[in-house]
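Minutes, project check-in

Agenda point 3 was the complex the collaborators sent over. CS summarized: three entities, 866 residues total, and the question is how they sit relative to each other. Sequences were read into the notes so everyone works from the same version.
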Amino acid sequence: MSGINPILIVDNLVKRFGGLYALNKVNLDVKEGEILCLIGPNGSGKTTLVNVITGVYKPSEGKIIFNGTEITGLKPNQIVKLGISRTYQIPRPFLSMTVVENVLVAALYGSKKRLSITDAKKKAEQVLEVVGYPKPKWNMPIKNESYINWKLIEIARALSTDPKLIFLDEPFAGLNPTEVDTSLEVVEKIHKELKVTIVLIEHLLRCVKKVAQRVVVLNNGIKIAEGSFEEVINNDQVKEAYLGEERAT
Amino acid sequence: MASVHRINLLKMTLIWILFGIMLALPNFSSGYVLSFFSLMFMYATLAQSWNIMSGLTGYWSNGHHAFFGIAAYTLAILIVKFNYDVTYAFLFAIFSSTVLAVIIGALLLRIRGPYFVIGTLVIAEMIKVVIISQEWLTGGGNGLLLPPRYFLFEFYYLMLTMVLLVSIAAYKIKNSKLGYAFLAIKDDEDAAEAMGINVTKYKIVAFLISGFFTGICGCMWALYVNFIDPYSAFDPTLQLIMAVSAAFGGLGTIIGPLLGTIIYVSLLELLWVSFPYFYFIILGLSLAIIIRFLPQGVLNYITTRLRVKKPEVTRNVWYKPDSNSRQLS
Amino acid sequence: MDPLSLFFQLLAQAFLLALIYTLMSIGLNLVYGVMKIVNWAHGPVVMIGAYISYWLFTLYGINPYMGCLIAFLMCSLIGYAIHDLLLHPISRSPQFGASALLLTYGIGIFIVNVARVLWTDILRGVNLDQPPIKIGSISISAPYFYGGLIAVFATWLLYYYIDRTMLGKATRAVSDDKETSELLGIGTKAISRITVCVGMGLAGVTGGALSTIFAVTPELGNVLALKATTIVVVGGLGSFSGAFLGSVILAFAEVFGTYVSSPLYQPLFYLITLFVILIVKPKGLTGG
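CS then shared the predicted structure for the full assembly.
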C-alpha cells in the first residue's frame, strides 16, 4: 500500500438541485497512490460527486481539499491544472479534430506547464503509446473511430494533463468482455507505471474485484459503506441497495 | 495524394494571379468597377473577421454590424463634434469597438446557441436605437457629415490590405494554440473546460479580435463615404451579407469567407443591377437556403463532389444526434 | 376627460392589446413546445395575415373578422411549406435551435421583402368606421374590442384543441418528451407539421385582428417578429401562461409608455427587458 496521506479530502459535501439532495453529507478520503472504486446503484450520485469535485457544479455545502489546498468552487479548467482530471461516462471527443489532436489539446491546456504545439503533440503521442492506441490511426479524424477507441482517448486525454488524481467514470460501460479486459489492463498499467491515484466509478463487479484496493458505496447521495471489496459486498445495506430489501435477507 | 498536391499548386497559382490583378486594377478600370471591388474587399474583410469569431468558435453572432457602426460613429462624433484629428479619432474609434466587443462578450458569456443569436441581435438593435435617440450627439436619424478623407483609389488599396491582414490573422490564429482552444470550444465547450481551457477568457478574446477588425472597417468606410447615418452604419444587411458570405464559403476555413464573398457579393451586385426589387428578397432567402442546403459551405460541398476528400469525412451531415460539433449541420 | 377615466380607458386598451398579443405569442409558443425552436418568421406571417385581411376587405368587402378565418387557412399553408421544406429536413442536426432560428430569420426577411415588392411600403389599414364601445364614461375603441374578442375566441378554440382532442394530447406528449412519444408510436413529424400549421395559422388570425388596429405595412413584420420573440422569451418559452404574462407586460408598456416618454425610446423598453431576461433568466419569468 503506497502513501498514507489522503490526496483528496471530501468534507461533508452536500449538493442540492432544487429540493433534491443529489449528495448528502458525503465524506471521503482518497489515499495517495491507491485505486479506489466508487460503486452504487444508478442515480446514487457517483457522477454528481465527480462533477462537484472537478468543478462542474458548485457544492451547496461542504469542502473539497486536494493536496492540502482547498479547491471548493474552483472552475474545471483551474482544477485540471492543479492535477485532477476525469473521463466522461459517454465519451465526448472533439469531433472536428484528429485522434492525436484530441489528446494534444488536453496536453496544451490541461497541465501546469506551458507547452508549445510541437511539444504537446509529442506528449500526446507518448500518452497514446501508453494506452496502446493503434499508431496508424493517430492522425485520422476521430469521428470515424470505434467506441472503445473513443473510450481509450478519454483516458489518454485525462493522462496528458499530468494528473495526480484521475476519475474514471464507468470506463468499461458499453464494451464487450474482450474490450473490458483490454481496458482493465490499461488501467492497471497506468496505475503501476505512472503512479497516479485512480478513482474508478464502475458497475461491473468483476472489474471492481480485480483492481480495487478500497471500495466506497453510495446510495441516494449518501455513503453507506466503505472498505475492501469483500467487506463491502457482504454488507447488508449494500445488498439492500442493489437487490432490494427482500432479496438481501 | 498526387491530386491533392496538384489542387494545392493550382490554388496557389490562382491566388497569386488574382492578387496581381487586384493590385493593378486601378490602372485600367472605371470608377464603378473600383468601387465594386473595394466594397467587395470590405465585405470580405468583414466576413473574415466575423469568421474569426463565429466560424472558429461556433458562436453565430448576429450583431456584428454593431461594431462596424460604433466605430464609424465614434470616429465621426470625435471629428465633427470634438474636432479631433483624424488619426486620433481613428485610434479611439477602433478602441471603442474593441471595448464594446469585450463588454458584449462578457455580458453574453453564459448564453449559447439560439439565445446567443438573439442576444447579439438585440444588443445591436439597442445600440442603434440609442444612437438615433441621442440627436444632440449623433445627429439622430439625420446622420453626420464628415470631411472627405479617402478617395476611391485609397479606399480600394486600404480594403485590399485589410482583406490580406485579416486573412493572415485568421490563418495564424487557426493554426496556433489559440486556434485549438477555439475549435475545442466549438466542438464541446464543457469538455474543453474540463481539459483546462478557460472558455470565458477565450470567448471574450474571440469577440475582441473580431470586433477589432470589424471596427477598423467601420472607420475606413466612414472616412470614405463621408456621410453616415444610423441606417447605413448599423445596417443589418451588412451583418447578413458577412454571415452568409462566410457560411456560403465555409465557416471556420480561411479561404471560405473570401471565396464566399466573391461569389455571393458578385451575385448580389448582378441582382441589384438587373432586378433591384429582388435584392432584399434574395438576401433573406439565401440565409435560409444556406442553412438548409449548404451548412458546411460550398467549398466543402464541391470538394466532396470532386472526391478530393474521402466521402466518409462528410457523411452523416444531417443526422448526428449525438454529435457535439457546433457546426451548423 | 378626467385623468381617472383616461386611466381606465388606457387600461382597457392595454388589456385588449395584451389579449391580441397573447394570441400572437401562443402560436409561437406552440411551435417552440413541439420543435423547441424560436420561429422568427412568426411576426412576418402575422403581417401577411394582416394584408390578407386588408385585401379581402378592400377588394371583396369581406369583413375582416371573416378574413381572419381565411388568413388562418392561408397562413397554415405557409407553415406547411416552411415545416416540410425547410424545418423538418434539418431537424435532426446538432444546433437545430440556432439553425432554425437563423433559417426562419432569413425566411422572415424574405417574406417582409416580398410583401414590400408586391404592396410597397404604403401604410394601409382596415377602417370599419365603427363607433367606440361605451362602458360607463369609458369609450373603448371598437377595433381593439373586437380584436380582443377574436383573440379570446381563438385562444379558447386552441385550448379546446390542446386539452380535449386526441391530436392535442399527442401534441402535448411530443412537447413533453419527443423521444418517448416516438417510441409510443406517435407520428412526431405529422404532429410537428400540424402544429406549425396551426401556429402559423394563428399568426394569420392575429394579423387579421391587427389589420383594424395597426397600420399595415411590410415593416410591421419585422417589428412584430421582435415583439413576439420578446414576449415568449420574457414570459417563458413554451408556456401559455408565460405568453399571457409577457403580452401583458409588453402591451401595458406600449400603451402607457407613449404617455410617459418619447417614441424614440419606445423600443428600448422591450429590448432591454428581453436582454435582461435573456442573460439572467433565459427560461423566462415562468420557466424553471
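Noted in discussion: Residues 1-73+203-249 of chain A form a domain with the Rossmann fold fold (CATH 3.40.50.300).
Follow-up: revisit at the next meeting once the mutant set is ready.
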